[in-house]
Amino acid sequence: MPSWVPLVLLLVPVGICLALPFKRDLLDKVWLVLAAEAVFGIGVGTYLALFSVPPERDMGEVVRIFAAHVPQVQNALLAVVLNFGCSLWFLIRKSWVADSLAESSAEVGLYLGAVGTALGAIWAKPTWGVYWTWDPRLTSAAVMLIYYAGYLALRRFTDNPDTRATWSAALGTFGIVIPVTVYKSVVWMKSMHQVQSSPETVYPQLVTAFRFSAIGFLCLMIVFIYQRYRIAQEQLKREVAPPEALGAPQGAA
Amino acid sequence: MADAAFHIVDVSKRYGPRWALARLTFSLERGKSLLLTGHNGSGKTTLLKILATAMSPTLGKLTVLGHDCHEGREPIREKVGLLSHASFLYEDLTAAQNLVVLARLIGMTDGEADATADAMLTRVGLAKRRDHPVRQFSAGMRKRLAVGRLLLKRPELALLDEPFGELDPQGIGEMEKLIAELAAQGTTLVLATHLVDQGKALTTERLHLEEGRRVEARA
Amino acid sequence: MIPLLVLAQAAADAQPSPGQVGSGRVIGGWEFVTAAYVLTFLGIVLYAASLWVRRPRS
Amino acid sequence: MTPAETVAQAPAVTTARPVRPGLFACTVILLRKDLLLEWRTRARLNALVFFGICTLLMFSFALGANAMALREHASGYFWLAILFASVLSLSESFRVEQENHSLDGLRLAPANGRAIFLAKAIGNTVLLWGLGAVLAPLSIAVFDLRVVMSLFTLAFIMLVGSMAISAAGTFYASIASNARARDVLLPILLFPVLVPVLIAAVKATTMVFEGDPMNQMESWLTLLGSLNVIYWGLGLVLFPRIIEDL
Question: How far is the alpha carbon of B2 from chain A, nearest alpha carbon, in Å?
Fold first, then answer.
C-alpha cells in the first residue's frame, strides 16, 4: 500500500475541525464518525505495525512500538498547544467554551502524554538498555506532565468558577514555555533521543502504519476532548448560576 | 446622572452557583449619605466591593463619580475610599509606615507623606503608637488605623463596611464623630452596618438588601 | 535473556550523536512490543471508561 | 494650627489632587515598601539564607563524601539551593500581601498592577541575588572550585538567573497564594517552567568554574536573556489580569 493512502483519512477530522467554528453543534452529530475512524485508524495502524512491517535493521522488532509511541506524544503536544490557544482565547474574551475546552485538552493531553512517555520508556529498555535515561527529551516530557497535573490540581483547588477560569487561563498561557522546552531540549542538551521523526528518517516500511495510527489517535483525541468538554460544560451548569435565575429586572429606583 | 455619586443598573454578581447581587438598580446623589442594611450574606459587602471596583460585576452597568467602570477603574479608585472587613494593613510595618506607603501612592512627596501620616495618626488617636508594628495592635486600634488610611485619601465617596465592628463604646462614639465630619465636608457616604440606630442618625437615605435584592425596609 | 541482547552501549555513560543509537542490533523484544500495545489499548479503554463514568446525566 | 487641625479642616472635595505617580515611580514606591518589609522581618530573611546553606550542604550527604562528584556538579547544587529557597521567599512575599488583603489595598490605592508585579519581581530578584552572593563563595569554598572566568561573569549569570526565577515565580506565587494547598502548588507549577532557566544557568555557571573551551557561554546567556524577556513580558501582561479578575 502506498504511504499516502492513510492521508486521505485526514480529510474527515480536518474538515470537521474547520467546520466547527461555523456550526457549533456539529460534533454532537458526527462524533461517532470520528470515533469510528479512530477505531479504524488505530486498528489498521496497529495491525500493519504488528504483522505487516518487517523488523528493522537496527532496532529489530521493537521498532513497532513507534507506531503507538509517536502518535500519542504528538497528539499530547497538540492538545497542550490547544490548551494554550483556549487559554489565550479566554483571556481575550471571557468565554466558558474556551475554559471548558482548555480543561478538556489539558486532561486529554496529560493522559496521552503519560501513556506516550511510558511507551517511550518501554521502547528504551531493549534499545538503550534502561527504562529511563536522564535524557532531556524524556525528562522535559515528564516535567510537562507534572505541570499539567498541577494545572488540573489548581482547577480542583479553586472553588469559584470565575477565578478558576482566569487563573488557569493564565497558567495555560504561561505554560506554552513548556512544550517549547520539550521540543528544544534535544537541541539545548546533547540528547540520545532522535532530533525529530520525519518519514525520511523513520523506517520507510513503518510510515504507512504510523500514519494510520497517527490519524486514528488524532480522531481519538478529538472525540475524547469533545466528551470531556461535555462533562466540563455540565459541571459549569451546576457551578455557575445562569442569568435566567435572576428573574425579571427590578424597577428603577 | 452627572451629579450622581454612583449609578448602578441591573448589577449582578455571581459567586459560583449563587447570585450575591441580583439585578440591583440604584443611584445615589453626590453629598447624600446612604445606610445599607441587610442580614449576613445579603450582598452588602459585595455591593461595597463592586462600588470600590475591588471586584467587577458579573452583569450590569456601573458608573461611579461620573466614570464608567468598564472604561478604566483607576479614575474611580482615585476618588473612592473603602473601609473593609480586611484592614489592608501590613502587619510588619509600623502604623506610620503603613500610612506613608499609601500617601506616596496617591502622589505625595516623601516629606508631605510623613507630615500627613503624623497628622492622621494624631487624628485617629494613635500618635503614641506611631512606631509600633501593626502586629502588636488590638482589633480596635487596627480599625482606627484603617480609618486613618481611608481619611488620608480624602475620598469623594467613602464606603464604610461595618465601621463600628470591633470598637469599644468610646471608639464607637469617636467613629460616629468622624463619620459626621466626613459627611459635613461634603463626602458622599455609604454605610453598611448592623447598628441601625447609629446608622440612621448619620445618614439620609436607606437601602435594604435581602438575598442581593432591594426590598423595602421594615422598621 | 533480553538484557543480554541489548545494545552494547550503556545509556548513562554513552554520548552518541543524536539519532544514531549504535551499530548493534536488537533481536527479539516482542514482549516489549506487546506490553506497549497492551498499555496503549488499556489507556484508551480506561480513559474512555472514566469519561463514561463522568458522563453528563441530563 | 496643629497638623491635626490642618487635616481636619481641609475641605475634602475641592482641593486639587496631587499627581499620581506613573509606572516607574509607582514601582519605586512599592519596591521600597517591599524591601522595608523584608528588612523589618529580617529574622525570616536570615532563616532563608540558612535554609539555602543547609540545602547546599545536604547534597554532600545525599551523594556521599565524594569530592570529585561534588565538585563536578557544584553549579547544579548551587542553583538548586537558590531554586528551593526561592519557593520559600516567593510564597512568603505573597503571604504578607494576603494577611490583611493588603494586595487589595494596593489595587484600590490605586497602584498600577504592572507596578505591583515589577516591584515584587525586582524585590525577589534582589533577594535571590543576595542569597546567591552568600552561597557562591560558600560553594567555591566547600566544593573546592576554581574560578576560571571572572567573578563579574558569575555575578552576571546569577543576576539574569535570579531575574528569570523571580519573574516566573512572582507570577505563579500570585496564583498559588490564593488557592488551597498553595505550598504544594507553587513548586509543582513553577519548577516545570523553570527547567530551561535551570539548564542554562547551571551550564553557564559550570563554565565559570571549568572554562569555556567551546565558546558556548554566549549562547547560554542568550538563552537566559530571551527567557527573561518571555517571563517578564508574560508576567507584565498576565499579572494585572490575575489580581483584577476576582
Answer: 16
pLDDT (tens digit, 9 = 90+) per residue, D190-243? 999 998 899 899 989 988 888 877 778 888 898 899 999 999 999 999 999 888
Domain count, chain D: 1
**Torsion angle in degrees (nearest 10) through CA of A7, A8, A12, A16:** 70
Bridge partners of B213, per DSSP, are B210
The CB density around residue B24, as the number of other CB atoms within 10 Å, is 24
CATH number (domain holding residue B170): 3.40.50.300
Residue of D1, D2, D7 to mutate for B, most B C-beta atoms under 10 A:
D7
Neighbours of chain D (3+ CB pairs under 8 A): A, B
Residue D5 falls within a domain, yes or no? no
- A partners (3+ CB pairs within 8 A) are B, C, D
Q: Which chain B positions have a beta carbon within 8 Å of A160's beta carbon?
A: 15-16
CB pairs under 8 A between B and D: 118
3-class secondary structure, B162: coil
Three-state DSSP at B3 gives: coil
Residue with cell 506487546: C34
Contacts of B187 in chain D (CB under 8 A): 12-13
The single residue listed with the C-alpha cell 474547520 is: A18
Is A128 within 8 Å of C35 when comparing Cβ atoms? Answer: no
**Total domain count, chain B:** 1
Taking the C-alpha atoms of residue A237 and residue A231, their distance in angstroms, rounded to an integer, is: 10
Selected residue of D44, D100, D104, D245 to mutate for chain B interface (largest B Cβ count, 10 A): D100
D35-40 contact pairs (CB < 8 A, 24+): D35/D123, D35/D126, D36/B93, D36/B97, D37/B90, D37/B92, D37/B93, D37/D96, D38/D123, D38/D127, D40/B92, D40/B93, D40/B133
Task: Give the start-to-end residue ranges of the domains of chain C.
Answer: 27-58
Q: Which residues contact D229 (CB under 8 A, 6 or more apart)?
A: none
Which tens digits make up the pLDDT trace of A118-147?
988 888 888 777 787 777 778 888 888 999
Q: What is the Cα–Cα distance from A144 to A165, expressed in whole angstroms? A: 20
Residue B24 counted as domain residue = no
Nearest to A250 among B16, B25, B59 (CB): B25
Residues of chain B contacting residue A246, judged by C-beta atoms under 8 Å apart: 12, 19, 22-23, 59
pLDDT in tens, A67-98: 888 889 989 999 999 999 999 999 998 889 99
Domains and CATH numbers, chain A: 5-247 (1.20.120)
**pLDDT, position D161:** 95
Residue D15 maps to a domain: no
Which letter does DSSP use for residue B218 in this model? P
Q: For an interface test with A, which of D172, D189, D216 has the most A Cβ atoms less than 10 Å from its Cβ?
A: D189
Does any CB of chain C come closer than 8 Å to the CB of residue A201?
yes
Residue-number span of the structural domain to which D180 is assigned: 23-34+42-244
Q: Is D10 contained in some domain?
A: no
Q: Residue D3 falls within a domain, yes or no?
A: no
The tens digit of pLDDT for each residue in B76-104 reads 888 899 998 888 999 999 999 999 999 99
Q: What is the ipTM of this complex?
A: 0.84
The residue in chain A having the minimum alpha-carbon distance to the alpha carbon of residue C14 is A192
